[in-house]
């Protein structure tokens, strides 16, 4: 599985794109890092790839996942997982129902679905928390639950928008290795936006700096 | 201070209505009635039963209609990923700004020509013109304040627009939706001119009767109508308060208005 960005640029309609056209190829199991000054459009770029752009933005270029053109598809058909700074668990559902929200439809039957969720909870060290209110989880538990929710939907690529920045230092390293281990185990491409050089080092993939003022994006 | 004074005065006025509705003999300057009676309450057939049913039916239908329309409008804005046009915003407020009497007179003429005056349908239509703006105003801000990342997360998990609406937005917004509905009920119950004009005088609601009775001599009967008229909106607000509290009793993030 590969995620390819071909001459991709995004900008508010009718004006200059936020950054020069970007070319990038993220291989299966790789976590590529996207860095750059605030306001350069890193999160907007992720929105464009995931299909969550607001009205008024135009995208040019191509986003290809496993050879398929993504830009013509609505977000729900792209199978691109999304992780935010916060866990953004659904506040009205139990932890278990949050995880089963995106669970693939081919897991049929109440028992089988419940078993799949229980197994994911166990992997994330959240055994026995199926019925819990997500608001009562600790920060680390929320982050792990959110990741398992995303992975249970069986995504073909993963976008991470500063996913560890709100966690304290100790927890950050733990959740980071937990997330990256899952990306590698599943062999899906991942693209991470971050300000933290430690994140980039731990990702151990390509690092792209989105430059300002017409600098061509450079790959290190 | 002013607010609590007004609240106390309002509560006292309400209380006096309730007392009047149970009073039998009450001579000045007695603080309380000398004798009490159930007789006005025990005869719904005397008129208040029918007026109550009509008012309730109008309130529920008009509110449901307005709520469905408001949700469709707001969801439409979300799906188009567009903000509301200024003229559309102004259009919502228009029925609240134009004097009702002028507005309704024209509408009444139109309805008469079309031959649809005098029925429940015509009254519902006219009431909705005033109920919808309040429902829309009450619901717009909470709807927009909903964390967009919730629906983005749902979409990235494979949920299409309908599932995002039904499984995420509506349940998370249950409290503001019910509050908007309660406001809509209260506005509908209080409508006087739409029921009078569009109903061609043939549709009696608690409000039209209470207004007529308020100039009559029998304060006991007026007390019955006015009590019922105040009770319906209060019932709505009570449900808007209780239902989300029960549905979300184990969901801390949805209780205090804080988000995630």
UniProtKB/TrEMBL annotation, chain A:
PANTHER family: SPERMIDINE/PUTRESCINE IMPORT ATP-BINDING PROTEIN POTA, SPERMIDINE_PUTRESCINE IMPORT ATP-BINDING PROTEIN POTA. GO terms for molecular function: ATP binding; ATP hydrolysis activity. Residues 3-219 form the ABC transporter domain. It comes from the Bacteria. This is ABC transporter ATP-binding protein. InterPro entries: AAA+_ATPase, ABC_SmlMolc_Importer, ABC_transporter-like_ATP-bd, P-loop_NTPase. It comes from Paracoccus methylarcula. SMART domains: AAA. The keyword Magnesium does not apply.
TrEMBL record, chain B:
GO terms for biological process: transmembrane transport. It comes from Paracoccus methylarcula. It is found in: Cell membrane. SUPFAM superfamilies: MetI-like (SSF161098). This is ABC transmembrane type-1 domain-containing protein. Keywords: Cell membrane, Membrane, Transmembrane, Transmembrane helix, Transport. It is a multi-pass membrane protein. Belongs to the binding-protein-dependent transport system permease family.
